[in-house]
Amino acid sequence: MGKTLSVVAAIIENENEEILCALRSPKMSIPNQWEFPGGKIQEGERPEEAIEREINEELKCTVKANTMFLKSHHDYETFSIDLTAIKCTLTSGLPTAHEHSKLIWLKRENLDSLRWAPADVATVEQLMTECL
Ligand SMILES: Nc1nc2c([nH]c(=O)n2[C@H]2C[C@H](O)[C@@H](COP(=O)(O)OP(=O)(O)OP(=O)(O)O)O2)c(=O)[nH]1
C-alpha cells in the first residue's frame, strides 16, 4: 500500500439548493471522474485554510469554510486518501473551470447520476440522505 494523502473537498451549495460538481480532466490523476473541488492539505495547514486556498487557486473565486461535513478514507490501488469534505459558502466571484474539464450544479437527488471518484462515494451518499 502506498502513501496516504490528506485531501480537502468543498461542498458548495447555490441559492437553488444545487451542489457544485467538478469533472477531473484527462490530464489529472483519477481522470474523467467527478469530484468535489479541492486538493491536498499542505504541511502546517488547517483543513479550513486548505480548502479556501485550493478553491481560490482552482476555481478563481473565494469561499468561506463553514462546517466539517464528512471525513472518509479510501484505498486506491497505489495510494490512499483521507478525504475531509467541508461545507463552504461562496463569498465572491463565480466558480470557473481552469484545471477541470467541466463544472456543473446538481440537485442532491441527482448526484448519483455522475461517475464519482471512488473516494467521493461516501460523501455523495451522505449528501443524498440529507434530502430524504
Ligand atoms: N480535490 C479532490 N481530490 C480528490 C477527490 N476525491 C479523490 O479521490 N481525490 C484525489 C485525486 C487526487 O489523487 C487527490 C487530490 O489531488 P489534487 O490533484 O486535486 O490536489 P492538488 O491540487 O493539491 O494536486 P497537485 O496537482 O497540485 O499536486 O485526491 C475530491 O473529491 N476532490
From TrEMBL:
Nudix hydrolase domain mapped to chain residues: 2-128
Domain of life per record: Bacteria
The enzyme's E.C. designation: 3.6.1.55
InterPro entries: MutT-like (IPR047127), Nudix_hydrolase (IPR020476), NUDIX_hydrolase-like_dom_sf (IPR015797), NUDIX_hydrolase_dom (IPR000086)
Sorted UniProt keywords: DNA damage, DNA repair, DNA replication, Hydrolase, Magnesium, Metal-binding, Mutator protein
Catalysis performed (reactions): 8-oxo-dGTP + H2O = 8-oxo-dGMP + diphosphate + H(+)
Annotated GO MF terms: hydrolase activity
PROSITE patterns: NUDIX
Main enzyme class: hydrolase
Names of the cofactor(s): Mg(2+)
Family the entry assigns: Belongs to the Nudix hydrolase family.
Protein name as it appears in the record: 8-oxo-dGTP diphosphatase
Lineage of the organism: Bacteria, Bacillati, Bacillota, Bacilli, Bacillales
